[in-house]
């Protein structure tokens, strides 16, 4: 490194991407180490405009209450709920951190950022009804899912979701589960408020309209990050001990440029999305739930169909979808060359191998791209039989990049969750993948802190602070029923979620 570089003028931490992940990590690190100097770089002019934006993100507070893809059926017919339990615990961790920020006046969160909304799973057909009943029986053995109801009664289901049951074939076998303590979350609003708070700290600088073009590890342990001001064309170099790449679909290209061995073999498969947005206020008002169904064979998890009540910027909305599609862009506002430029010798074989193994996904995406308006309406009518085309308009949703990585056999495997890639020395971390992403951001960033700051995280000061921010830190809510109820009682009061907190204080005392 040039000896004229004054490292004292550079940050301790660089966060690439101004989305929910960078905002969460920034808040965690500043709470743990208040004197840290942080710089945030975002290529767009505003925060949370890609994957974290309300219109680009599913918005469900993912607790695995209604998402059937998180509870797969095993070959023997039993239901595997391990992923559902992990996701449910992770969302409880997120709520704890948000509650801490509110109580300590660290973040002035918008009133509309989180709302109570019932989460419902709905299926039809003998096979799917049998699956849902087994899922319900298995989930309700765990206290994380206490309060879930199951019904095959048409009248009961109509009370839960009138639009879904209206004018449905009375001879069709249907079933649903419902839990009242579900939530809807505007992650865009949450992200912007956390970054606003960070921006008020004199040691945190945020640069919008700045694109990170390259990064390289130097011999002295620092990362040299090359940044371009997109408005002026000015280029500069910034140095930091730690770099986090949380740029959504833009993460993979930067991870590849970092040349860390841990990133070898990683590739990405972009999947685009669309929504049908209801424009009829009377219909919007009739539906008060998130109703999730079963995904089509071969479809990615982000394409699980749902008729979804949303609260976006204080206004109630009703969406159906998402409809998947294919684009070679890695970001909604990215380049059509993104996919081609991401192909390298070390990831070519895994990408080809994953493509061969996932031909049904390719066929599904081709069919989705070829859909006409009447095809989308037909899919909607599976969940809302009386739907009329004039009451709905098409909206473009977010862009996702599904992770491809080397398999143990040397080929490639397509991953549908999130993937954390960290350098062996902990100096760089990159987050790849999609769902359930935002809902589990706090747990993901806690894992990053443990991987990348192992010495600090074991210190008495950091341990005490982590337990203050996350009362359940290092404890299993799936194994500690009383702690779960205490945590839910606290967070529901702080986040103003009366339906969730109504009985949990009493329940905690009974355990």
UniProtKB/TrEMBL annotation:
- Sorted alphabetically, which Pfam families does this protein's record hold? Mqo
Task: Return the broad EC class.
Answer: oxidoreductase
* UniProt-listed PROSITE patterns: PID
Q: Which GO terms describe its molecular function?
A: L-malate dehydrogenase (quinone) activity
Pathway(s) the chain acts in:
Carbohydrate metabolism; tricarboxylic acid cycle; oxaloacetate from (S)-malate (quinone route): step 1/1
EC code: 1.1.5.4
Keyword vocabulary terms for this entry: FAD, Flavoprotein, Oxidoreductase, Tricarboxylic acid cycle
Domain PID stretches: 117-157
What cofactor does its activity depend on?
A: FAD
Q: Which reaction does it catalyse?
A: (S)-malate + a quinone = a quinol + oxaloacetate
Give the matching InterPro entries.
FAD/NAD-bd_sf (IPR036188), MQO (IPR006231), PTB/PI_dom (IPR006020)
Q: Which family is annotated?
A: Belongs to the MQO family.
Recorded protein name is Probable malate:quinone oxidoreductase
Organism of origin is Pontibacter populi
């Amino acid at each position: 490194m040039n000896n004229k570089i004054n490292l004292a003028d550079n940050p301790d931490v660089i966060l690439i991407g101004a989305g929910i992940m960078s905002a969460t990590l920034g808040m965690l690190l500043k709470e743990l180490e208040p004197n840290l100097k942080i710089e945030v770089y975002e290529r767009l002019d505003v925060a949370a405009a890609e994957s974290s934006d309300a219109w680009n993100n599913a918005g469900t507070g993912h607790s695995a209450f209604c998402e059937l893809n998180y509870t797969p059926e095993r070959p023997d017919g039993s239901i595997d709920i391990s992923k559902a339990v992990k996701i449910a615990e992770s969302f409880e961790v997120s709520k704890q951190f948000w509650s801490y920020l509110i109580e300590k006046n660290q973040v002035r969160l918008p009133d509309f950022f989180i709302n109570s909304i019932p989460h419902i799973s709905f299926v039809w057909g003998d096979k799917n009804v049998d699956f849902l009943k087994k899922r319900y029986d298995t989930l309700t053995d765990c206290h994380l899912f206490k309060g879930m109801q199951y019904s095959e009664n048409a009248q009961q289901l109509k009370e839960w979701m009138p639009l879904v049951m209206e004018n449905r074939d009375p001879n069709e076998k249907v079933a649903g589960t419902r839990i009242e303590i579900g939530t809807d979350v505007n992650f865009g609003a949450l992200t912007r408020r956390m970054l606003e708070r960070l921006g008020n700290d004199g040691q945190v600088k945020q640069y919008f309209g700045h694109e990170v073009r390259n990064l390289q590890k130097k011999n002295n342990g620092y990362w040299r990050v090359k940044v371009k001001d997109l408005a002026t064309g000015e280029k500069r170099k910034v140095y930091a001990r730690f770099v986090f790449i949380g740029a959504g679909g833009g993460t993979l290209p930067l991870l590849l440029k970092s040349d860390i061995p841990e990133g070898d073999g990683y590739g990405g498969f972009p999947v685009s999305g669309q929504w049908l947005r209801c424009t009829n206020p009377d219909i919007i008002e009739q539906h008060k739930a998130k109703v999730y169904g079963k995904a089509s064979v071969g479809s990615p998890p982000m394409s699980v169909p749902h008729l979804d009540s949303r609260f976006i910027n204080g206004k109630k909305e009703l969406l159906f979808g998402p409809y998947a599609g294919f684009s070679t862009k890695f970001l909604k506002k990215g380049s059509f060359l993104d996919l081609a430029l991401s192909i390298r010798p070390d990831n070519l074989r895994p990408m080809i191998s994953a493509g061969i193994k996932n031909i049904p996904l390719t066929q599904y995406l081709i069919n989705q791209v070829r859909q006409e308006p009447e095809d989308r309406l037909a899919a909607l009518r599976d969940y809302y039989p009386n739907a009329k085309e004039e009451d709905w308009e098409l909206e473009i949703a977010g862009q996702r990049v599904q992770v491809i990585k080397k398999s143990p056999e040397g080929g490639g495997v397509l991953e549908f969750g999130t993937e954390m890639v960290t350098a062996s020395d902990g100096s760089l971390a990159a987050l790849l993948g999609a769902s359930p992403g935002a809902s589990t951001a706090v747990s993901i960033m806690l894992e990053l802190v443990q991987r990348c700051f192992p010495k600090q995280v074991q210190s008495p000061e950091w341990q005490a602070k982590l337990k203050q921010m996350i009362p359940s830190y290092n404890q299993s809510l799936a194994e500690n029923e009383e702690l779960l109820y205490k945590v839910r009682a606290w967070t529901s009061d702080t986040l103003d979620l009366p339906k969730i907190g109504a009985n949990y204080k009493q329940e905690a005392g009974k355990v």
